[in-house]
Amino acid sequence: MAVIIDGKALAAEVDQDTKKQVDSLLKRGLEPHLVVILVGDNEASQIYVRNKSRRAEKLGIKSTVIKLDADTSEQDLLDQIEKLNTDDSVHAILVQMPLPDQINEFKVIETISPKKDADGFNPVNVGRLSAGQMDHTPVACTPKGIMKMLEKYQVNVDGKNVVVVGRSNIVGKPMSYLLLNANATVTVAHSHTANLKQLTKTADILVVAVGKTHFIKVQDIKDDAVVIDVGMDRDENGKLTGDVEFSSADKVASFITPVPKGVGPMTISMLMQQTVELAKWSKE
Ligand SMILES: Nc1nc2c(c(=O)[nH]1)N[C@@H](CN(C=O)c1ccc(C(=O)N[C@@H](CCC(=O)O)C(=O)O)cc1)CN2
């Protein structure tokens, strides 16, 4: 039976450390400030944004939520971001994804100052990450949280064959760069990959981020593989499930993340940690 990687417990540990750092910054007169922009009324996004601002409050981080109507124009959103870029009291800016169709996601990400890029999605920061320049570089929070999990559970990635299934800008691509920077041999698979399930079966570490309930089953996993499930899907009964069929996968894996309480909780904790880092870097 696999060891279950407890994302909720680890997130609480990260938060404790973040709180200590916030307390010490507050003593020096620096109040980290995160601004989250939510466009529209996507139900899940509203919950995530609420959770982000509650967590920030709990840790002593100032958080401001800007809510914009679903029909907000791209230009209005870009203008709003430009204003925040020049506001010295703001250290971190995040635009909640997904965005309504009339708004070009890339233009939005490109407009956020790389120095205030809470999500690490700006192309300058993605470029730095891909070049292995990790110092003072914000990184996408979900992959960053996964690296933290692997470290905590002493999973050595150096020289391991890692297969990342999914090539999104939020998870798959930054995940592959982080693993490559840590000396893993990384293959990124996606919907056009030939013989995908044969490939996943070769992975020492398998990261799955495809958004399809139980896409990976026990027969697709190598014995003793480490399985990281980034999926957050709903099954036919509306129950939250992952991309991996946990009930069978945990019989062959050495380590596995559950859904919920696996990768998800780490995302917000890493966001809080990154907000504090951006505040610190702004004074260096
Ligand atoms: N600008 C961004 N937008 C989005 C991101 C992101 O990192 N930056 N990621 C996701 C949503 N997300 C944070 O924004 C997020 C999703 C899920 C969780 C989480 O803790 N999940 C829980 C279960 C929650 C539930 O019951 O529904 C878990 O897995 O245990 C945190 C953050 C897309 N947009």
TrEMBL record:
Catalytic reactions on record: (6R)-5,10-methenyltetrahydrofolate + H2O = (6R)-10-formyltetrahydrofolate + H(+); (6R)-5,10-methylene-5,6,7,8-tetrahydrofolate + NADP(+) = (6R)-5,10-methenyltetrahydrofolate + NADPH
Coiled-coil region(s): none
Residue span(s) of domain Tetrahydrofolate dehydrogenase/cyclohydrolase catalytic: 5-119
EC number: 1.5.1.5, 3.5.4.9
UniProt keyword terms in alphabetical order: Amino-acid biosynthesis, Histidine biosynthesis, Hydrolase, Methionine biosynthesis, Multifunctional enzyme, NADP, One-carbon metabolism, Oxidoreductase, Purine biosynthesis
InterPro entries cross-referenced by the UniProt entry: Aminoacid_DH-like_N_sf, NAD(P)-bd_dom_sf, THF_DH/CycHdrlase, THF_DH/CycHdrlase_cat_dom, THF_DH/CycHdrlase_CS, THF_DH/CycHdrlase_NAD-bd_dom
GO molecular function: methenyltetrahydrofolate cyclohydrolase activity; methylenetetrahydrofolate dehydrogenase (NADP+) activity
Statement: the UniProt record of this protein carries the keyword Cell membrane: no
Gene3D superfamilies for the chain: Leucine Dehydrogenase, chain A, domain 1 (3.40.50.10860), NAD(P)-binding Rossmann-like Domain (3.40.50.720)
HAMAP family: THF_DHG_CYH
Function: Catalyzes the oxidation of 5,10-methylenetetrahydrofolate to 5,10-methenyltetrahydrofolate and then the hydrolysis of 5,10-methenyltetrahydrofolate to 10-formyltetrahydrofolate.
Protein name in UniProt: Bifunctional protein FolD
Organism annotation: Pediococcus argentinicus
